[in-house]
Amino acid sequence: MEFDVFSYVVLPLLIFVARIFDVTIGTIRIIVVAKGNKLLAPILGFIEVLIWIVVIGQIMGNLSNWVCYVFYAAGFATGNYIGMVIEERIALGIVGLRLVTAKPATELMKRLEEEGYGLTYMDAHGMRGPVHVLYITLSRKRLNDLVKLINQYNPGAFYTIEDIRMVNKGVFAQSNKDKMGIFRRKGK
């Protein structure tokens, strides 16, 4: 019995790589759909399904080749991971950060204003007494910088972060990428 290099090495590797691409594209497509991008989502979906059809055709043509099954599944898992890493790096979208602190936030607010962040501040009453609440809407690309500032000026503050689908007007700190048009908002 002769070992078929194409069927048991080359084809499974091609299936593995193709699955990485189609699942990575699919992961990003789902995020783009959630962000409401009506142009990019269908293009990504078309490419994703085209790759999937070619790959599944190869699987169906080689049903007795268990190596293809293993590489198909491994490509799927790897594609999920790579898609999540890519999405995290490109940081699409807008988030809202709500900060609640019993400690006065005057210094933090001053620094945020210096950095160009728009914020809304209010006094409130929490379970243990008076608190200060800050609302900040920003590009996800700036989120790590904002969290560092919060931890520097107000360590231990409670905050939540939420994805926002659309923003209308407001004051936003812009990174260089934002200024190049990657971050767009309505009303500006």
Description:
There is one protein chain. This protein is of the alpha+beta class and 188 residues long. It has 2 domains: 5-90; 94-179, 2-Layer Sandwich (Alpha-Beta Plaits). It has 6 helices and 4 strands, in the order H-H-H-E-H-E-E-H-E-H. It has helices at 5-34, 40-61, 66-90, 106-114, 143-153, 176-179, and strands spanning 94-101, 119-126, 129-139, 158-164. A 4-stranded antiparallel sheet has the order 2-3-1-4, covered by helices on one side. A hairpin with a 2-residue loop joins strand 2 (119-126) and strand 3 (129-139). Helix 1 (5-34) packs antiparallel against helix 2, helix 1 runs parallel beside helix 3 and helix 4 (106-114) runs antiparallel to helix 5 (143-153). The longest helix has 30 residues, at 5-34. It is elongated. The protein starts with a helix and ends in a 9-residue tail after the last helix. The relative contact order is 0.13.
Low-confidence stretches: 176-188
Main sheet strand line-up = 2-3-1-4
Q: How would the global form be characterised?
A: elongated
Number of strands: 4
Give the helices and strands as they follow along the chain: HHHEHEEHEH
Summarize model confidence as the mean pLDDT: 88
Question: Helices and strands: which structural class?
Answer: alpha+beta
Strand content: 15-25%
Gap from first CA to last CA: 70 Å
- Give the % helix: 40-55%
- How many domain units? 2
Q: What is Rg?
A: 23 Å
Largest sheet: 4 strands, antiparallel
Our count of helices gives 6
